[in-house]
Amino acid sequence: MALVALASLALSSSACIFARVMYYGEPSLSAPTYFDSRVVPAPRPSPLRATLTEAKITLAESTRVSYRSFDDLLRENRTRAFLWIHDDQVVYERYFDRVTASTQLPSFSMSKTFASVLVGAAALDGLVDGPADHLIDYLPELAAKPGYRDITLDHLLRMTSGLDFTEESVAGATFYYSTDLRARLYDYEVTRTPGTRYLYGSLGVQLIWSALDRRLAGKTVAQYFSERVWGPIGAEHAATWSLDSAEKGVEKLFGGFAATTRDHARIGLLFLHGGAIEGNRVVSEAWTKESLALDPVAGVLRTTDGNVRRGKYQWFWTLDGRGYFAKGYRGQYVFVVPARNMVFVRFGDDYGDVDWTGMFLRLADSVARERAAK
């Protein structure tokens, strides 16, 4: 979220949103404390195992000019948590600057990936028929709005709905700090034919919240997420979904999830294993494949990670196809290297000077080289 957007919002927003903007400014790793939240219980904890011998990370000679060790590199590049899982076991884990293994850290836009998993679980349950469902099947009052009849859940997940919502704008900042999301959800016009253009934005995922909320018949989205995702994947700690406000009680599905580092890794493990963990089926294997399938509408995107490809349901792919990842604001990652059976998680106050996706791939390759040399 750009500072200019926050400044514009401060000039145009309601008093409560204005107060939040002025007090908090740009979101940080303290974001879970900014808002009221709803607890996501972890009813079936299954702790991750750790290897007896920690992975040894040797810096390249050129890197050793600047850093004494890999820990030094992490610390100096604003990392607060780093986790490396290989063959379902923790092989390397570090925390810095008062962050610990039990600290709840904000997913930011990785929340959208967790949201897509929840839709997949709802499809498996029959709570939704599937991504081809039309939004008005759940929210019939929107049928009168021009263009809304043609929007499907697939369009919302893929950010191809045609809705005129731009993330890097006052709209994006307003959404993040809003105290009444329901009052804003249906204000946006359809300006392009759904399915024809990719435009990154949080609105689509939050509209999915509305659709799920209608079908849950009084159960909260956080409760359903706990039952169908957080419990089955074996999360060790309770998580939280930020709310717009305690009074309105709307989970910010687009960016309000917070959990521990190890528990974030479980979404990577879930997809690495085709939608099931330890025999617990969360989403269908077909859903994982469709989620990761390259999106022909989005194509190649220019991001802070360079050129990447977009998976259909809230994943990115490295351009060479070696790794896929969920990504959050200012350098939060869950990164999967399927050929190496590895998952990396990184949280930080910013990117620092590191190409993180390249770093994850280099670390994965280093293990392959060591094995080949034995």
Structural description of this entry:
It is a single chain. This protein has helices at 3-12, 15-24, 61-64, 70-76, 110-125, 135-138, 153-158, 170-177, 203-215, 221-230, 261-272, 285-292, 356-373, and strands spanning 37-40, 49-50, 79-86, 89-95, 105-106, 239-242, 257-259, 276-277, 280-281, 300-303, 306-310, 316-318, 324-328, 332-337, 342-348. Strand 12 (316-318) and strand 13 form a beta hairpin. It is built from 13 helices and 15 strands. The protein starts with a helix and ends with a helix. 44% of the residues are buried. It has a single domain (3-373), classed as Beta-lactamase (3-Layer(aba) Sandwich). The strands form 3 sheets. The protein has a 9-stranded mixed beta sheet with strand order 2-4-3-15-14-13-12-11-10, with helices on both faces. It has a 4-stranded antiparallel beta sheet with strand order 1-6-7-5. 34% of the residues lie in helices and 17% in strands. The chain has 374 residues and is of the alpha+beta class. Residues 9-13 have low confidence and may be disordered.
